[in-house]
Write a structure and sequence with these properties.
It contains eleven helices and 13 strands. The chain is of the alpha+beta class and 389 residues long.
């Protein structure tokens, strides 16, 4: 959604509020009372049609008016059921809605354009030189060819607000940086090791007690002394594996225009301009997982430039793991995030608010970015501006 689209959306909301106010003055009814009357008329019309057409579904009626009324009623019923079954979520939704109305009422603050000096505006060549300084060496350029990964994802979203359900999945942002997870790395290694330790401890303990337990006689406590620590270590490795998750992510930095790659098991991360990151899918085909067995859809994040100290290998990273659309969305979201000519999409707001609430940046190793704080209400911990740049 570009700036003109956002402006037209605001105008539409304002027109709707004006029309509602005029209607209330004309007939003396509130919006809720008018909606109640409208629903009663809708239900009566549906009942009359059902009486004339027994054993037929009104949502599949040939009469488009009746069909639309039935669909509208289904939506209302669905919302009522959700409200009844999820009172806490509805309370949170209503609270956020009330806050948004409160922010809009303060038009001066809501519409204020804050300075954007912190956003990257250097040329590609300048950022490439900065990346070389950070890496401590020059770059090699590569071309990418693969028999499996042939489907290159688009680098732009049709609208920055598309894909709002990415919240809480693979894309996280604090307003300054956006993270995309890599399949490999330290957190996955610790996950595997933790399961291995816990399973091995249980199996060996079972063998000691059942098969050769009689050998220990008075020393049957020995298996517990050996295998209990194995299980405890494995359990805590699994529980706290997320401590290392910050090492297994791409970090797209909107303030520098650079991308930081994940740590690999044997190489440190490196920086490069975001224009040199491309993402490929397996042309709608599943790719076997590294562990064998099940087959999952994955995508490949490919740096087209990499440091000269990569002598024997060219870095590639598996990402995604759900389907082509989701993987394409997260890559396009990252590329749109790095485009400083447009504000951040509203689908990133809840993620920004989460990190503001805990006062951490995306890595959870430092404080929340100071440049983003003016865009959030300190009491509600919610975005209170028209646009977050």
């Amino acid at each position: 959604m570009n700036i003109d689209d956002k402006r037209s959306e605001d105008e539409r909301i304002l027109d709707e509020l004006v029309e509602r106010h005029i209607a209330e003055e004309e007939d003396g009814l509130t919006h809720e009372e008018r909606e109640k009357i409208k629903r009663e008329n809708r239900i009566n019309a549906i009942k009359q049609w059902c009486a004339e057409n027994p054993n037929r579904d009104p949502t599949r009626a040939k009469d488009k008016t009746i069909k639309q009324l039935a669909l509208d009623e289904e939506d209302v019923v669905r919302i009522e059921e959700f409200r009844k079954n999820n009172p806490e979520k509805m309370e949170e939704i209503e609270r956020r809605g009330d806050n948004k109305s409160k922010y809009r009422d303060n038009r001066q603050t809501y519409k204020e354009r804050l300075p954007r000096d912190y956003l990257h505006k250097d040329s590609y060549e300048t950022r490439l030189k900065k990346a070389e300084v950070l890496n401590g060496c020059g770059f090699k350029t590569r071309t990418f060819k693969s028999k499996r990964f042939t489907d290159e994802y688009t680098a732009e979203l049709k609208s920055p607000n598309r894909g709002s359900t990415l919240e809480g999945h693979w894309v996280r942002s604090d307003g300054q940086q956006l993270a995309i997870s890599w399949f490999g790395g330290w957190s996955n290694l610790f996950t595997g090791l933790s399961f291995l330790l816990m399973v091995a401890a249980v199996m060996f303990l079972f063998v000691d007690l059942v098969v050769i337990g009689f050998v220990w006689e008075d020393y049957r406590w020995v298996p517990f002394a050996v295998y209990a620590p194995m299980f405890i270590i494995g359990f805590y490795m699994h529980k706290y594996r997320a401590i290392l998750s910050h090492r297994d992510k791409f970090y797209f930095n909107r303030h520098t225009g650079l991308v930081k790659t994940p740590h690999t098991l044997f190489r440190k991360p490196f920086y490069l301009p975001y224009e040199d990151i491309v993402c490929y899918g397996a042309n709608e085909r599943n790719v076997g997982s590294a562990r064998g067995g099940s087959r999952v859809f994955v995508s490949l994040m490919v740096p087209l430039k990499y440091p000269a100290y990569y002598r024997l290998t060219k870095p590639t990273f598996y990402v995604g793991g759900f389907n082509r659309e989701w993987d394409s969305l997260q890559y396009a979201t990252a590329m749109t995030f790095m485009d400083t000519s447009i504000p951040l999409g509203t689908h990133l707001y809840q993620s920004i608010e989460h990190y503001f609430k805990i006062d951490k940046d995306i890595t959870e190793k430092h404080g929340f970015p100071e440049e983003i704080k003016p865009y959030l209400d300190p009491d509600d911990c919610q975005v209170n501006r028209h646009e977050v740049w």
